[in-house]
Write a structure and sequence with these properties.
The protein is of the alpha/beta class. It is 34% helix and 16% strand. A seven-stranded parallel beta sheet has the order 1-10-9-6-2-3-5, sandwiched between helices. The mean pLDDT is 95.
């Protein structure tokens, strides 16, 4: 695990975008795992700018998203399919048929998640997975207590996650209580992982993920066992790291050698 600490989230977003872009340039038919939420928006804007400037092309790229709210149609303005369309897919030259998001209205969720995993395997697995991190240290919707070997499945959201997501809905009662989500085990199979974390409200989560014990109560801590995981943080999110100065020095050195 490498921790890249930047002064601002804009700087961190640009560096993370550069890593994604490098993956696409190396393999124009690569498989990306993508995340939603406010955290990766800056990175997606950077990638869209790169496409507009003709620095990269996503024409051959295939993508699979981490999760989707259970019970929301892809056309709902708070669904993750809608989010991806508006914040990335419509801004780049990717073939929309190559973009995959779990179907929140699937009649048989067990069949849906099984087919999703099978499709990822047929594609050769995920080359680079983008992640955010919840304030309690969860990745995707793998809430505290989730098995670190878990696969894509239907999950119940915790009261904290529901509260965190309430700002995106008109009223708290509208926030879905369930989601379909890649499991920790699924995520860990990605060849490279890029996690973004910004703001003081993520400082405890980042500390737990990077310096805490590996535990199902902070599912991001499983990334300590990954061979190629990168955390891109601003100073506020990295503020509680005991070895902050070391990470800041080592991370940039490793990034330069990559």
């Amino acid at each position: 695990m490498e921790v890249i600490i930047c002064k601002t989230k804009d700087e961190a977003s640009r560096l993370a975008a550069d890593m994604v872009a490098a993956c696409v340039k190396k393999n124009p038919k690569c498989v990306l795992g993508l995340a939603t939420g406010s955290t990766p928006i800056g990175m997606y804007k950077c990638l869209a700018e790169d496409v507009k400037a003709r620095k990269i092309s996503f024409k051959g790229v295939r993508s699979w998203n981490l999760d989707e709210y259970w019970g929301l149609a892809g056309t709902h303005d708070q669904s993750y399919r809608y989010f991806m369309d508006k914040n990335l897919f419509e801004l780049i030259d990717i073939d929309r048929k190559n973009t995959h998001v779990l179907n929140g209205l699937a009649k048989d969720w067990k069949r849906e998640v099984k087919a999703y995993e099978a499709a990822i395997k047929r594609a050769g697995g995920i080359d680079l997975q983008v992640l955010g991190i919840g304030s309690d240290g969860h990745i995707a919707f793998n809430e505290p207590g989730s098995s670190l070997a878990s696969r894509t499945r239907l999950v119940s959201l915790t009261p904290q996650t529901i509260k965190d997501n309430a700002r995106f809905f008109k009223k708290a009662a509208d926030v879905p209580k369930y989601a379909l989500s890649m499991g920790v085990g699924t995520i860990m199979e990605a060849r490279t992982i890029v996690l973004l974390a910004f703001g003081a409200n993520k400082a405890d989560a980042v500390k737990g993920a990077v310096e805490g014990g590996i535990s199902q109560f902070c599912t991001a801590s499983a990334l300590q066992m990954h061979k190629d995981a990168w955390f891109f943080c601003d100073e506020a999110a990295a503020a509680k790291l005991k070895l902050k100065k070391y990470y800041a020095w080592r991370g940039l050195e490793e990034l330069a050698r990559r």
